[in-house]
Amino acid sequence: MEGKRALVCGAGGFIGSHMVRRLRSEGYWVRGVDLKNPEFGLSAANDFVIADLRLRESWEAVLDEDTNEVYQFAADMGGAGYIFTGDHDAHVMHNSAMINLHAADFAVQRKVGKIFYSSSACMYPAYNQEDPQNPKCAEGTAYPAAPDSEYGWEKLFSERLYFAFSRNFGLKVRVARFHNIFGIEGTWRGGREKAPAALCRKVAEQQDGGEIEIWGDGLQTRSFLYIDECIEAVRRLVQSDCPGPVNIGSEEMVTINQMAEMIMKIAGKKLSIKHISGPMGVRGRNSDNKLIRKELGWAPSQSLYDGLSKTYPWIDARLKAYREETKEAVARV
Prior knowledge:
This protein has 333 residues and is α/β, with parallel strands linked by helices. The protein has ten helices and 13 strands. It has helices at 14-25, 56-62, 80-83, 89-109, 150-169, 195-205, 227-239, 256-267, 290-296, 304-332; strands spanning 5-9, 29-34, 47-50, 69-72, 114-120, 173-178, 181-182, 211-215, 221-222, 225-226, 246-248, 254-255, 272-276. The strands form four sheets. It has a seven-stranded parallel beta sheet with strand order 3-2-1-4-5-6-11, sandwiched between helices. A two-stranded parallel ribbon has the order 7-10. It has a two-stranded parallel ribbon with strand order 8-13.
């Protein structure tokens, strides 16, 4: 590994910042690039650049010709409250598409060794995810295409973009479809947080005997993969001869109500659940890992409960720190 150079796009974000640390631990020289610094600490990158990857001049500055691997996580995204309201569709499609158009183009120009693209399970057809107990998310079920959001449509477009550049220009691509990645150092408040972080925060905010709100009836199903597992799977994919797309996710499907109960157990709290109207996405989604097991021999090594047991205390500590900072700010006024 010594001497290898990587560019991590979206290195100020959740998955990107974890990937930077993993690559550094393997001896890579890493450049990270994002619109913002990591929220929860300094980047582990050798060189961290604040840049707007929607602009060609940013790619001209950050992508060197001796780059062995590019990890493209940069996107305009968030949880259900951001993706499924429809209020951000134009930004989601335009911003992410511009990043990927430039990424593919410059990867060919600079003759990079490989480029990894993080797609999403949101690109799967909504019609295959209406039964919460039997969603169909095998890689081969992507067509006829009918994603449930513009975010999913952009992901599908960009998958096809990278594979077109692979066919026409010989670009070595690796594509994975992520299924709900969560863990420490992920967004936990502000509207862009995913369901595990949002529920951890809601439970942490309440005293024993209190109440939390869940969008919908809570019977919608999902699977959730802890961040360390995701990083391991991506590294195996990049090092393999498999271009993808492959699912990277957990096959442990739970309802949102069940996940809330897990978090309450971890927190040692008994809370009631109030179901309210809100964006939910599809009724059921679960990773189908048959292909990645066959191609890479990979499967998650820990349960959802194990991952939540690490995530909840981290969010609880962030919440307490935030409350203290708010008190101090009010006192100063």
